[in-house]
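Morning!

This is the sequence you dropped in the shared folder:
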Amino acid sequence: MKNLLILISFLYISPQLFGQIDSNFIFTKMSAKDSIDFNPFWNQFKSNIFNSDTSEIRLKSLQFTKCDICTNSESEYLSIDSLLLNIIPSLKSSPLWSAIQQNRINLKKRRQQNSDKKITPKGYGDLLTTYEVWIQTYKPNEFAAGHEGQSHCFQFIRHNDNFKLFGITSIP
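The structure's back. Tokens below.
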């Protein structure tokens, strides 16, 4: 009986101590209300990129963005001016833009601890909610045989009832 109790305790405690699950991380589909609010914004943002309307993109972005795909930056944070100068112009000729045009998107909402207080607006709080547009840039085996595929993501936050570009990331 004692051995059974030790085994059960071990099986319960091990994932708690060594697991990689962050209980503060919640990833869900957008609600109907969020989707109704966000879709017109996303369509306008895409149009701003297509039309190279940098002033509108700047208005719809934080002053600094988190850019995981920006390989020419020493920091994970990039000013919106650098993003507009170095990243946005190359989007229209990229496979990412083709996937956006083909509407290979999935809208998600993520809640987690705000670990990016350097770039979120003052008073935003400890809980970060991002509205995410995941774009399947490459389906599995589309780029090359055996390739697992690739997705990119535009991340936005909502502050004072306005959506703002927060970051760009990708997997893998």
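Headline: The first strand starts at residue 26 and ends at 29.

More detail when I'm at my desk.
O.
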